[in-house]
Specification:
The complex is a heterodimer of chains A (111) and B (260). With 111 residues, chain A is mostly helical. Chain A contains four helices and no strands. Among the domains of chain A are: 40 residues, no CATH class; 33 residues, no CATH class. Chain B has two domains: 116 residues, no CATH class; 138 residues, no CATH class. In chain B, strands 1, 2, 3, 4 and 5 form a five-stranded antiparallel sheet that branches. Chain B has a five-stranded antiparallel sheet with strand order 9-6-8-7-10, with helices on one face. The chains are: A mainly alpha (111), B alpha+beta (260).
Chain lengths: 111, 260
């Protein structure tokens, strides 16, 4: 990656600016001027960017550090497992509440 | 082939030439368009990519967006090493040079005012994260299910611990911000970054930008560095120096603050 001819990493970008930091600024900050080509960046904003990531290349998304779809059940099997874990936790909580209501009937120990 | 004029930034004329190998969007070299004592930094972009429809589609394409954002930022950054640029928002495009000149004329006063205010200043980004919980003891002990009551108690306790960590992180962020604001001329609070979007681990509790004279930047950086190990479980990240993106917008938002 780093070759002598490469344009030196501008300034302090090595100090941890990620793509989100850049997008946050170039899409959302800076002087707003209506050019000849009118486009409302608010229409895309980061939220849409995020949503559109599903169709983006995985590498690019990794570079951005985006793997949120991994927790969306519609999108990954791992997420479906997480979904089960979550549901499991909910059930445990409900069970616990029931046990507190009826202490006598709480299963004391596993056989 | 038709081309449009993409404007990266507006600045005052500067003596130092830009790096010869600097490229902007689509690999085109940026040029300086002098007008009325101001300089628009422009490059030619294909009309096919920057027509309204094409642009709309492109902006939804992360690869394109990332490459364009980096190219935009690359040019602005190169300018920041030689002058104080006013960065324009991504994808500010005009039909030709005369349209760019007309834009400069129409906004001359505004540009000059901003350039005066920002002259010799840079922006530093500071983010504070609450680190992810240190290896939580396995949520469900692998052996056998604990009783529901134990489980609930455990949940309550870890909820309280979580609350404490939150409060500690917030206190830290507030005190850090106060110290930084004293060393900055102005600041802006940005929305905390979604860790899923930024890829940074932990929970972002402060995301702020500080406007600092270049001459005082070293002190500012040292100040941030010193706080980095102050509090366990809390991470401080510094980015910059950026062109004063966060201080170039026109808006008088609520998140606007003045330092010292």
């Amino acid at each position: 990656m780093t070759t002598p001819s490469r344009f030196p990493e501008p300034y302090g970008q090595g100090s941890g600016a990620n793509l989100a930091d850049i997008l946050e600024r170039v899409l959302d900050k800076g002087v707003v001027i209506a050019g000849d080509i009118r486009i409302n960046l608010l229409d895309i904003e980061l939220l849409t960017v995020k949503l559109r990531l599903i169709v983006a290349s995985v590498d690019k998304a990794k570079e951005m550090g985006i793997d949120w779809w991994e927790s969306d059940p519609a999108l990954s099997s791992r997420a479906r497992r997480d979904e089960l874990t979550r549901e499991n936790a909910e059930l445990r909580e409900r069970l616990a509440r029931l046990e507190e209501l009826e202490p006598g009937r709480a299963p004391r120990e596993a056989p | 082939m038709t081309g449009l004029r993409y404007v990266y930034a507006v600045c005052r004329p500067f003596g130092t030439p830009l790096q010869a190998q600097l490229t902007g969007i689509g690999g085109a070299p940026p040029a300086l368009l002098h007008h009325h004592g101001l300089v628009a930094v422009v490059s030619t972009v294909p009309a096919a990519d920057f027509s309204e429809d094409a642009l709309k589609a492109h902006l939804e394409d992360l690869d394109w967006l990332a490459a364009t954002a980096r190219a935009h930022q690359g040019v602005v950054d190169a300018l920041t090493t030689v002058t104080t640029p006013l960065p324009l928002r991504l994808a500010t495009v005009f039909r030709d040079d005369s349209a760019v000149r007309a834009m400069i004329e129409a906004r001359e006063g505004h540009f000059r005012g901003l350039l005066d205010r920002l002259h010799g200043r840079v922006e530093w980004g500071v983010k504070v994260y609450l680190e992810p919980e240190p290896a939580e003891p396995a949520p469900a002990p692998a052996a056998k299910p604990v009783s529901g009551r134990d489980y609930l108690r455990h949940r309550r306790e870890s909820g309280r611990a979580q609350e404490d960590r939150w409060q500690r992180a917030e206190r830290f962020a507030r005190s850090l911000h106060q110290r930084l604001a004293e060393h900055a001329e102005e600041f802006r609070w940005h929305h905390p970054q979604n860790s899923q979007l930024s890829g940074a681990p932990g929970r972002n509790v402060l995301n702020a930008a500080y406007l600092v004279p270049r001459a005082h930047s070293e002190e500012f950086v040292e100040l941030v560095d010193r706080t980095k190990d102050e509090e366990a479980g809390i991470r401080v990240e510094l980015t910059g120096p950026w062109a004063a993106y966060s201080f170039s917008g026109e808006g008088t938002e609520e998140n606007v603050g003045e330092g010292r």
